[in-house]
Specification:
By secondary structure, this protein is mostly helical. 67% of the residues lie in helices and 6% in strands. The chain folds into three domains: 139 residues, MgtE N-terminal domain-like (MgtE N-terminal fold, Alpha Horseshoe); 120 residues, CBS-domain; 170 residues, Tetracycline Repressor, domain 2 (Orthogonal Bundle), CATH 1.10.357. The chain contains 22 helices and six strands. The chain has a three-stranded mixed beta sheet with strand order 1-2-3. A three-stranded mixed beta sheet has the order 4-5-6. The protein starts with a helix and ends with a helix.
Amino acid sequence: MSEEIIEQDEEGLDARRVEAVLEAVDAGDAALVAELLEPLHAADIADLLEQVSEEERNALLTLYSPEIDGEILSEISDAIREEVIDALPPEVVAEAVRDLDTDDVVDILEDLEAPAQAVILSALESADRVAVERALSYPEYSAGRLMQREVVVAPEHWTVGEMIDHMRSADFLPDQFYHVILVDPRMKPVAYVTLGRLLSSRRDVKMKEIVEDSFRTIEATEPEADVAYLFNQYHLISCPVVDENDRLVGIITIDDAMNVLDEEHEEDVLRMAGVHDEASLSDTVIEAAKGRALWLFVNLLTAILASGVISVFAETIDQMVALAVLMPIVASMGGNAGTQSMTVAVRAIATRDLTAQNAPRVIRREVAVGAINGLIFGVLMAGVATLWFGVPVLALVIGLAMLLTLMAAALGGIVIPMLLERFNIDPALASGPFVTTVTDVVGFFAFLGLASWMLL
């Protein structure tokens, strides 16, 4: 099978290639492992390392370590990166990180323990080491951690020709860059020019005559979530980073900003499900259990509260068993409606589309949506209850309960995330249990309360 895969020279990681690699690892054939992995992108090799077991990963690294480069290390999940670095010879790690941009080195270092950090820092040239240590001195999840120090700059008075000559004679240029940053004599960025405008202009044109209108700067201490918002909101390609004195210290490019957006989205999804935001398939059983236990405990408390409401109406349920049959329907519909509104609210808060100014309008809209759906499904369930139990009043009870529950669910789903945001609590993390509690309590109270009043 290995020979077939090599002859086909197909790129991309599939089950057949993974199986072939693991067979080569079992056989201790380092040359075959290297040949099978050679066509793959660094991200695919990182995926392979994440998918296999710890034992298989260590065996693979033993055979493949001479081929490990910085790109692969930067693509590996934070959950196993330190384990991978520990399994590699120090000289391999040192060689791998030398060619990385400073932002990639920082990304690797910030999740490692001090001894592992020291190994990598000692491998860097002195100028790069100082740049990385300076970046690590900025707060975690800030623009200073996200930026790269490799920047192409020019005095604001230069012409296009002078800039082109400078780039051609420069000893070093970043592998990828999109703008030339214009700076004043104090190294404060004043504008930038895209490479497209630069290369399409005559040599005698002043650089400041072809600058972009989208120019803005970001402070190094600014949260990376705000950085990602700026890139997304204003369609930026790159943006200079400045220190407290407005001097240029680095640049953030769109790929790093989009990575932050992806991470923020992933964190929101995990938190809304009550899962730790650093959860990974590579986590051990104990790590996974610990990460989920807290919010399961919170859900247990809220479930007890909802059960307390049911216990108040125990005699009512004893007198009409049909109520016990219909209760889960009310709870399920309310929970789903609340989750829908909550998801809309959490996402709108994250993208800053839901603000204090438009909140009243959004709340009215969500309640109206809840009322319409409550009316539709209330009538539907009333018909089902009539056919099922033949008690017209019971049909009216569940119809009204469905209307009230879906309205309350829509209101809770939008208001609770907003209140949590107001008190600086992550709405993605804490909204779920509270919205579920509101919908369950209101749903059970409305259904059983109406039943006690109208049926008994």
